[in-house]
C-alpha cells in the first residue's frame, strides 16, 4: 500500500524498474507488448520488491522511434491499449505499493502531432514558431544518421530534427510551448501518475542562431551535439517546470532527467535539492567509455578499473550535494551482463549477480531494466533483417551507401544495437518465451530456454532472487540508502571494493570482476573477522572471504559490522 506521508527525498531508498512496453508482455496475441500485459505481470515487480515502475512511452504515436515520437500526449496508442487500461495500471500498481513514472518526451514531438501539423501548414500559422523553420539549413547531422534538417514541400522551408525526420524539435524559448508542456504534465499528475523520466531533457535549449557544427573526418555532417547539450537555459526551464508543475503537488513524486553528455559538475547543479530542478539525472559517461573514435558503433575495449574510476568519481562528487541515478542498461543500451559482465554460460549468472551487487549497494537510486533481473543477454543478430531499430537501420543503410559491407558492420551492431535490449522479456522456456501467443514483432532470443523468469522466481540462488535480496537490503539498511561511500583498493585490477557507513553501521562491498579467484588485500579485511555476510552471490563467496580472504571468480559479498571497527 502507498503512503503519501513521505519526505521529499523518499526516492533515496527506492528502486525503479523500467518497462519497455512493446517488449514486456503481449496480452492480445498481436505480437506487441501492451498495457494489459504489464497489468498481468505486476506480480513480478511486486515479487522483486521495486518501489517505482518507469513506463517507456505508451502515448499515441506513429511508432517511428517506438513511441519516442508522440502525436498525442494525452492519448494511449491503440497498440498498447486505452486510457482506461493506463488508469487501471496506475491503480493496481498503487495497490501493490508501486508508484508509476511516465516518460516525458518533449524535446520533440512526432511530425504527426497536431502542433506540428499546424506549424507546417503555412509560414504565418500561430504555431509556426513552435518548431525551428529555416530557409537554409545549417550543417548539423541527425543523431539517427543523415542531415538534421528536412525540407517541407508546403512552404519550401526546412525544419530541425535532431533525431528522426519524424521527430521535429520544439522551440523551448517559446513560452507557449513551455506552458502547453506544463499543463500536460499536471494533467497526468492529476490522473495519479507519480512523476516523469524526461527524455533528452538537456537538449531542449538550442543556441541562438543555430551556428554550424564542427566537421569531423569521416562524417559529412557538422556536429550538433556539442552545441545543443546542456546549455545554460536548461536550468531555467527545469526550475520553471518545477515551480509550475511540482511545487504545489501534494503527493510524493520523482523526476529524472535523461542527459547525454552531462558532466558531474553540471549534474550537481541539476540535482541540488535547493535549486529545485530535478531529483536525479541519467548521466552517460560510464556507457560511453567503450565508444571508439568512429562513434557509437565503433567498439573500444574497456577495463573494469576504467569503469570503476568513472562511477566512483560520480559517487564522490555527488556525495555532499545532489543525487545519483544508477543504471547498467536500459532500452537504448546493450545488455549489462554481455557488456560489463561475462555472458559465457559458465560465468553468466555469477557475473550478472555481481554487477547487481555493485550497482545496488552504491549511493543513488538504482534502475533495473526489464530482463536484467533475469540475467538476459545480448542477441546473436546475423543479418540486416534481424534489426528493427531506426537507429540501427539508418546506420546500416548509410554505411552500405558508402560501400561498407554489412559483415564489417555486424560486430558493432551485435555489441551495441539498441535491439539487444528490445527482444521480448523471457518469461518461460516455452514457445515465444511466454511473451506472446502470436508472432513477436522482434524474435525472442534463442537462450530463453535457459534464461527465463519461470525458472528463477522463488528459486534460491537465481539472479532474480539475488536482485530481490539486494532491493530488500536497500529498504532495510540505511547504510545502503543513506550512508557515505568510501572507494577502496582503487588500483586493484579485478576487485571492485568500497565501504558504506551510516551512524554505527558499516558495510564492506567486495566484488570480483575476473574468472580467477581474487585474493582480497588483507588490510581491507582487518577488523571484519566477526562480520556478517548480509548478501552474497553464493555461500562459497561468503565463506571464502570470511575464512580465507579469497573471493571466487565473478562473485561478490556485502559484509556488515556494527560498532567501531578498523579497516
Ligand atoms: O535517447 C537519447 C539518446 O541520447 C541516446 O540514447 C539515443 O537513443 C541513441 O542511442 C544515441 O546513439 C532517448 C530515448 O531513450 C531513445 O529511445 C530515443 O530514441 C531518443 O531519446 C529520442 O527520443
Task: Supply the key terms.
567 residues, alpha/beta, TIM Barrel, Oligo-1,6-glucosidase, domain 2, 4 domains, 8-stranded parallel beta sheet, 5-stranded antiparallel beta sheet, 18 helices, globular, binds 1-O-alpha-D-glucopyranosyl-D-fructose
**Largest beta sheet: what is the strand line-up?**
11-10-9-5-2-1-15-14
Net shape: globular
Ligands in the model, by name, code or SMILES, are: 1-O-alpha-D-glucopyranosyl-D-fructose
Please describe the biggest sheet, giving its number of strands, its sense, and whether it closes into a barrel: 8 strands, parallel
Number of separate domains = 4
Task: Look at the structure and give the CATH class of the largest domain.
Answer: Alpha Beta
**Radius of gyration over alpha carbons?**
24 Å
Mean residue pLDDT: 97
| Extended strand count | 22
Strand content: 15-25%
Q: Give unreliable regions as ranges.
A: none
The number of helical elements comes to 18
Looking at the structure, the CATH topology of the largest domain is TIM Barrel
The percent of residues in helical segments reads: 25-40%
Could you say which structural class the secondary elements and strand pairing correspond to? alpha/beta
Fold blueprint:
Layout: E1 16-19, H1 35-40, H2 42-48, E2 52-55, E3 59-60, E4 72-76, H3 83-95, E5 99-104, H4 114-121, E6 133-134, E7 149-151, E8 158-160, H5 175-191, E9 195-198, H6 225-228, H7 233-246, E10 254-258, H8 264-271, E11 280-282, H9 285-288, E12 291-292, E13 295-299, H10 304-317, E14 325-326, H11 336-339, H12 348-361, E15 365-369, H13 390-401, H14 406-416, H15 463-476, H16 478-481, E16 484-488, E17 495-502, E18 505-512, E19 518-519, H17 522-525, E20 532-536, H18 539-548, E21 550-551, E22 556-562
Parallel strand pairs: 1-2, 1-15, 2-5, 5-9, 9-10, 10-11, 14-15
Antiparallel strand pairs: 3-4, 6-8, 7-8, 12-13, 16-17, 17-18, 18-22, 19-21, 20-22
Helix pairs in contact: 5-7, 12-15
Bound molecules: 1-O-alpha-D-glucopyranosyl-D-fructose.
Amino acid at each position: 500500500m502507498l503512503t503519501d506521508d513521505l519526505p521529499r527525498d523518499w526516492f533515496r531508498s527506492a528502486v525503479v524498474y523500467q518497462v519497455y512496453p512493446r517488449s514486456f508482455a503481449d496480452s492480445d496475441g498481436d505480437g506487441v507488448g501492451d498495457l494489459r500485459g504489464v497489468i498481468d505481470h505486476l506480480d513480478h515487480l511486486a515479487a522483486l520488491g521495486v518501489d517505482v515502475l518507469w513506463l517507456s512511452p505508451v502515448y499515441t504515436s506513429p511508432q517511428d522511434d517506438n513511441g519516442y515520437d508522440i502525436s498525442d500526449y494525452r492519448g494511449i496508442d491503440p497498440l498498447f491499449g486505452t486510457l482506461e487500461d493506463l488508469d487501471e495500471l496506475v491503480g493496481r500498481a498503487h495497490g501493490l505499493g508501486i508508484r508509476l513514472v511516465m516518460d516525458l518526451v518533449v524535446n520533440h514531438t512526432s511530425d504527426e502531432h497536431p502542433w506540428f501539423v499546424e506549424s507546417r501548414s503555412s509560414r504565418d500559422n500561430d504555431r509556426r514558431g513552435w518548431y525551428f523553420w529555416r530557409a537554409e539549413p545549417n550543417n548539423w547531422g541527425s543523431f539517427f544518421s543523415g542531415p538534421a534538417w528536412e525540407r517541407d514541400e508546403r512552404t519550401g522551408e526546412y525544419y530541425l530534427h535532431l533525431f528522426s525526420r519524424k521527430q521535429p524539435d520544439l522551440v523551448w524559448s517559446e513560452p507557449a510551448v513551455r506552458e502547453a508542456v506544463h499543463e500536460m504534465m499536471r494533467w497526468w499528475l492529476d490522473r495519479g501518475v507519480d512523476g516523469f523520466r524526461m527524455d533528452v531533457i538537456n537538449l531542449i535549449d538550442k543556441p541562438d542562431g543555430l551556428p554550424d557544427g564542427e566537421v569531423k573526418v569521416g562524417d559529412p555532417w557538422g556536429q550538433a551535439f556539442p552545441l545543443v547539450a546542456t546549455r545554460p537555459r536548461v536550468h531555467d526551464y527545469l526550475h520553471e517546470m518545477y515551480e509550475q508543475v511540482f511545487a504545489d503537488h501534494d503527493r510524493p513524486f520523482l523526476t529524472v532527467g535523461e542527459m547525454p553528455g552531462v558532466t558531474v559538475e553540471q549534474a550537481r547543479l541539476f540535482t541540488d535539492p535547493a535549486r529545485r530542478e530535478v531529483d536525479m539525472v541519467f548521466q552517460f559517461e560510464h556507457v560511453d567509455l567503450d565508444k571508439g573514435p568512429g562513434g557509437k558503433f565503433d567498439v573500444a575495449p574497456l577495463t573494469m578499473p576504467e569503469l570503476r574510476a568513472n562511477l566512483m568519481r560520480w559517487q564522490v562528487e555527488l556525495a555532499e550535494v545532489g543525487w545519483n541515478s544508477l543504471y547498467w542498461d536500459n532500452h537504448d543500451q546493450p545488455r549489462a551482463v554481455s557488456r560489463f559482465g561475462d555472458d559465457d554460460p559458465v560465468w553468466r549468472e555469477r557475473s550478472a549477480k555481481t554487477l547487481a551487487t555493485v550497482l545496488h549497494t552504491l549511493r543513488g537510486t538504482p534502475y533495473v531494466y526489464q530482463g536484467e533481473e533475469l540475467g538476459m543477454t545480448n542477441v546473436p543478430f546475423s543479418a540486416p533483417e534481424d534489426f528493427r531499430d531506426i537507429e540501427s537501420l539508418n546506420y546500416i543503410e548509410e554505411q552500405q551507401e558508402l560501400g561498407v559491407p554489412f559483415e564489417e558492420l555486424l560486430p558493432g551492431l551485435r555489441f551495441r544495437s539498441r535491439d539487444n535490449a528490445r527482444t521480448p522479456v523471457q518469461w518461460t522456456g516455452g514457445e515465444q518465451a511466454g511473451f506472446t501467443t502470436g508472432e513477436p514483432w522482434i524474435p525472442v532470443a534463442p537462450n530463453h530456454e535457459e534464461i527465463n523468469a519461470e525458472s528463477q522466481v522463488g528459486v534460491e540462488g537465481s539472479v532474480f532472487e539475488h536482485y530481490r535480496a539486494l532491493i530488500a537490503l536497500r529498504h532495510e539498511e540505511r547504510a545502503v540508502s543513506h550512508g557515505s561511500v568510501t572507494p577502496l583498493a582503487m588500483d586493484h585490477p579485478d576487485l571492485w571494493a568500497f565501504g558504506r557507513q551510516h551512524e554505527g553501521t558499516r558495510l564492506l562491498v567486495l566484488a570480483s570482476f575476473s574468472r580467477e579467484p581474487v585474493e582480497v588485500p588483507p588490510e581491507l579485511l582487518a577488523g571484519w573477522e566477526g562480520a556478517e555476510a548480509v548478501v552474497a552471490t553464493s555461500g562459497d563467496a561468503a565463506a571464502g572471504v570470511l575464512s580465507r580472504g579469497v573471493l571466487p571468480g565473478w562473485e561478490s559479498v556485502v559484509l556488515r559490522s556494527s560498532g567501531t571497527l578498523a579497516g
